[in-house]
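Dear support,

I submitted the protein below through the web form. The confirmation email said the job was done, but the results page showed an empty box. After a refresh the structure appeared. I'm attaching both so you can tell me whether what I see now is the final result or a partial one.
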Amino acid sequence: MTPDITTAPMTLADLEAVIGIEASAFEQPWTAHSFRTELMKNDLAYYLVAKVGDRIAGYGGIWVIINEAHLTTLAVDRAYRRLGVASAMLQALIEKAFTMGARRITLEVRPSNSAARRLYEKFGFTARGVRKNYYIDEDGLVMYRSIRNFCRENNNDPAS
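What the results page shows now:
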């Protein structure tokens, strides 16, 4: 059974849970200071958390620069994986990017991260190139998609 998943803007009060997920999800995790800086000082950034009940199950973020969004991070607590949490967050982030003026969205993903690649492909992202040495031990696969098309496909075009 799929749990009831809600998303909300990330706050400083969420950082302890976010840092816990971050540390278990990534070999080179962001620090609490990095997240705090993003939340308090980066006017181009938008971060959210996904909750199942009152527990933070995941988080994600984007930067919107002019008309392009960049997915900066997306992670789900191991206990909540494969339940739709990542999909709910990605949907919310793409819609938020559109309302912030973005018309396309890009991201980098490890070529070896097949689960993440499947998620992004399910959302219509296509591989467009490679960023050499993006990760310490691996190149980054650059993926892209149009947001306007996404919003139309999901009958959620704020411009209509």
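Response: this is the final, complete result; the empty box was a page-load delay. The chain has one domain: 5-153.
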